């Protein structure tokens, strides 16, 4: 499994800590930036390359951090094939994958600490999509919405 990670200035410090934690845990991780702290960078610029990598299959699962987690979630979900969600606790970290095939986890660097982020990330990365009939039926409806409204 290849993990991608990205953050703007509001998640920059946390991203660097999480990158080390992921690497130390044995994950193959690709850093999509920001690579240096820039107090006026914009979250769409850092999350777009990560979201495109998730969409293309280059990355198995993505992690994005901004101040609240909302901005990266909104921007990432504009990319076809990306199912990004803002998560603040471990249950949704695994349930979002198991039931909704979430492939990009969004976190708020100014909202929760690195310890909780790490717990959420572990739940997210260990989870697998259930694929059961009701979950697939719902996912198919989401994909149909995406196909209708998001032009690739």
From TrEMBL:
Entries under PANTHER family matching the protein: RIBOSE 5-PHOSPHATE ISOMERASE, RIBOSE 5-PHOSPHATE ISOMERASE-RELATED
Gene Ontology biological process terms from the UniProt entry: carbohydrate metabolic process
Coiled coil start-end: none
Pfam families per UniProt: LacAB_rpiB
GO molecular function annotation: intramolecular oxidoreductase activity, interconverting aldoses and ketoses
Protein name (record): RpiB/LacA/LacB family sugar-phosphate isomerase
Species for this entry: Mucilaginibacter agri
SUPFAM superfamilies: Ribose/Galactose isomerase RpiB/AlsB
Alphabetical UniProt keywords: Isomerase
Similarity comment: Belongs to the LacAB/RpiB family.
InterPro entries reported in the protein's UniProt record: RpiB_LacA_LacB, RpiB_LacA_LacB_sf, SPI_LacAB/RpiB
Catalytic machinery residues: 66 (proton acceptor), 99 (proton donor)
